[in-house]
Design brief:
The structure holds 2 protein chains of 2 kinds. Chain A contains 11 helices and no strands. By secondary structure, chain A is mainly α. Classes of the chains: A mainly alpha, B mainly alpha.
Chain lengths: 288, 281
């Protein structure tokens, strides 16, 4: 509980700095308008009210972003093309589909890697090396190529998400499945347990904490993948499309609202996995 | 069809060879450990080439590796210009500024536990956010050239490095700090002689995470607007022309640059944190 006060202070400082920055960055426009209208530039009070209430500010003030968020989530029908819930759902559905695909693939590959030495030696270095490659950069290409094969809509985005969430899961699961120490494995051997029994009764349960840690990384990566995957399709639907169309038309408030919606979604998804983690670890008696 | 069968046979042969190598004593040596993944990598390239040629896959969908290699050989000057624009000006500069700012911020809030307790959860939260989303805003603020890309990279790398540095500065244990105190070391002496060196493994962990983020940030930011040079621009423009060989060439360059960058950071880490158990063999 002693963390709430410091966090609140930091958040308040950030908001205050934000307002100062908004006044500073939007000032030029106000002065420009004043000189065009041939009137004296406003004083400090007038300047502040003029800068934080512009329609297309360089930096929208926090309350403008909050108002836009409120307007485009609560104040609008969910089916509307301008509703952030509609766009958010499109992104989230691609994220979740991709995340599920990536997780299943990652777990399967990890199981293969720990049971087959040749696979371990040949695939693992590449899996690690692939982390250093900016995979996100090829997202547009994947979308376009899949489009030309006839795959459209949800699946191409989900494939990018799957690709991004796949490697954290592989690396985490390999670590987790190897985490039981030699003593425990030897004990199972004295019980005459085979590889399968050792896997189900020891390795898999031992890997659960590692799995959840990599799931958290994986779902955040999935969301980034889904958002970037929406960019090259020409801003049709989704949070990425809102970012892109906002940047085309100079709608800064819309960009910031979409950005915050993405942040809220990311935080929500990670928190959801956190809840599942706590529940699972508690049931398994591993809660710390 | 023969090409397909041949490539499948090559795959099977390479797999048998790898299984044999994996069980033999060869993998004890360092060279053997490099040999097995190398064989696997070559297999992937051969099967890719054979499948694409054998099945007659259109180069608009997937070009064979040989076509990509030919494209790289032909357009080296273009690729070099793109590399300079995106990787050196955008990613590297942003990386240096962002990481420097993060380490300095961590040291600045080091003396205030209150600020740390407040900033750490916020930093952790921000590190999980899709920060690439700020790319359109940065392009609006700093223009199309590399400055906006560097700005995106600064924001992307800042929080992972900050969180890791703060965790690292807390890594030295009580006993060691007490020892410094018995020598009547000042705060700064304690910081530079004990706590910063002890934090290095953590800092480098953050730096390594950031090194992969930097290139991604610089490339994706170019999708929102760029001058007519740069890796992200080239990828985006080549999609329009369906010049997939050019895209793969850029990806190869990006992969090389990303791996080299990561390798460089890892090399520096080995030199700086030679004392850490994970570096002793």
């Amino acid at each position: 509980m002693n963390r709430i006060l410091p966090v609140l202070t930091v958040v308040l400082v950030i908001v205050a700095l934000w307002y100062v920055a908004a006044v500073g960055m939007n000032r030029a426009w106000v002065y420009d308008q004043a000189s065009r209208a041939g009137v004296e530039p406003p004083g400090l009070g007038g300047l502040i009210t003029a800068t934080i209430n512009q329609e297309r500010p360089v930096l929208p003030a926090p309350h403008q972003v909050a108002a836009e968020l409120w307007k485009s989530t609560v104040g609008m029908a969910v089916t509307s093309k301008r509703s952030l819930i509609y766009h958010g759902w499109i992104t989230v559905s691609a994220t979740l589909l991709g995340f599920a695909m990536g997780t299943v693939l990652g777990v399967v590959l990890a199981v293969g890697i720990i049971h087959n030495r040749a696979m371990d030696l040949s695939v693992m270095p590449w899996a690690i090396a692939s982390q250093t490659i900016p995979i996100l950069a090829i997202a547009p290409m994947i979308i376009v190529v899949l489009n030309s094969v006839g795959l459209q809509g949800l699946v191409p985005k989900a494939i990018i998400s799957a690709y991004l969430s796949f490697f954290p899961v592989v690396v985490g699961m390999v670590k987790g499945l190897r985490s039981p120490d030699q003593m425990q494995l030897d004990l199972l051997k004295t019980y005459n347990a085979g590889d399968a029994a050792a896997f189900w009764k020891l390795r898999l349960p031992a890997s659960v904490p590692y799995l959840f840690a990599s799931l958290k990384v994986g779902i955040a990566a999935s969301l980034v993948g889904a958002i970037v995957g929406e960019l090259p399709t020409g801003a049709v639907a989704g949070l990425g499309a809102r970012l892109l169309s906002g940047s085309y038309y100079g709608q800064t408030v819309q960009i910031w609202a979409a950005l915050f919606a993405a942040a809220i979604v990311a935080a929500g998804l990670v928190a959801l996995i956190g809840v599942a983690e706590r529940g699972a670890l508690k049931r398994m008696g591993m809660a710390r | 069809m023969t090409l397909v069968v041949l490539s499948l046979m090559f795959w099977a042969g390479a797999w048998v060879l790898n299984v044999g190598l994996a069980q033999s004593a060869v993998t004890r040596s360092r060279a053997g450990r490099l040999l097995v993944p190398a064989i696997f990598g070559i297999t992937v390239l051969v099967v890719w080439e054979g499948m694409v040629r054998g099945l007659g896959v259109s180069p608009v969908i997937l070009p064979p590796p040989s076509a990509v290699a030919a494209r790289i050989a032909v357009s080296l000057p273009t690729l070099w210009a793109d590399f300079l624009q995106t990787a050196v000006k955008g990613a590297l500069l942003g990386y240096l500024i962002g990481c420097g700012a993060a380490v300095l911020t961590a040291i600045a809030i080091d003396r205030s536990p209150f600020l740390q307790r407040g900033l750490l959860p916020v930093g952790n939260f921000v590190a999980a956010l899709p920060i690439v989303g700020i790319a359109p805003i940065m392009v609006m603020w700093f223009g199309f050239d590399w400055q906006s890309k560097a700005a995106v990279v600064v924001v992307m790398v800042f929080f992972p490095v900050l969180v890791n540095t703060v965790a690292g500065l807390a890594a030295s244990d009580r006993m060691q700090r007490d020892l410094m105190a018995t020598w009547s070391a000042s705060y700064w002496q304690g910081l530079f002689k004990l706590r910063l060196p002890a934090a290095m493994p953590f800092i480098f962990n953050g730096l390594k995470i950031a090194s992969t983020l930097a290139l991604i940030g610089a490339i994706v930011a170019e999708f929102f607007g760029s001058p007519i040079v740069g890796m992200g621009f080239r990828i985006n423009a080549s999609i329009g022309q369906l010049a997939l060989d050019m895209i793969w060439a850029e990806i190869a360059v990006a992969a090389l640059a990303g791996s080299a960058f990561y390798g460089l950071v890892a090399l520096i880490e080995r030199g700086v944190t030679f004392w850490h158990p994970s570096q002793r063999h």
